[in-house]
Amino acid sequence: MRVSTTQIWGNAVNNLQAAQDRQMKANEQVSTQKVSTDLMGYGRSAEIIASYQATLSNTNAFIDVNKTVSDRLDAQNIALERTSDAASQAKDAIMSALASGDGSSLATAIQGAFSSSLDGLNYVHNGQYLFGGGNDDNPPVTVSTLTGLANLTSVSSAFQNGDVKKSSRIDVHTTLQTGMLASDLGTQLMTLFQQYQQQATATPFGSQLDDTQKAFLTNLANQFSQAYDGLVEQTSLNGTMQKRVENTQTSLQGQVTSLTSLISDRTDADMAKAYSDLQIAQVSVQASAQVLSSLKDTSLLNLLK
Questions:
Q1: Do 143 and 155 contact (CB within 8 A), yes or no?
Q2: Closest CA to 295 of 30, 82, 10
């Protein structure tokens, strides 16, 4: 059998390169704690891992959507409570005036309730009007005073919101309509404030309420109570949506945990084996390098002696 110096050198170089490749692979596993740095390194499992990763990415996207929706619903709850409190304020002020027979302080109380209702219906969240219905850059309620409201020929002209109710897809199967419109929430309330102001302008409520004024205020108080009940119902609906989003968020977080575990099971390196492989590869590299070094001073003739 003929053995050449070139063949000996070639075998030594090949052995060194193979040892270096094993060292590089083991070093990557130790540093990244992963079997491979790309899907090609996982062989037949690559397709399954890619599927898990795509599902995980989609699930995290839904979690982000849910966080945004939850934030908006929290703001909506505040706005609804302010609006319903305004109806309650107005009713309580009227009932107090009826109980005492004195309407002299009613104007101030009703003005305060009206201002509270504007705070709620024109509530701003993240730089946009919450109940704008698509016209989110402008206040949905355009009147700012009771006098201005009283002078309108139609209460509907007090609103300039759009008619788009925001919807969000909170998971693969569920799209939730969370948006509300100022005109839907506030028309009854603004109508009652308008009626009050028109009556107060025609026959001001003084320190002595007459029977006609008492009858008017009694009816008005009952209607404010109904408006309050309607707004509380909307607040309750908002709370139901908050709970649904919260439950969906919990479910999605569970899916993320499960998917992350499934991916880790297939991609995480066996660290004990990785460290062992690295040590073996390092020894192989050193041994192969020593062989090459010894070949520098060795010729084929010396080997055949």
A1: no
A2: 10
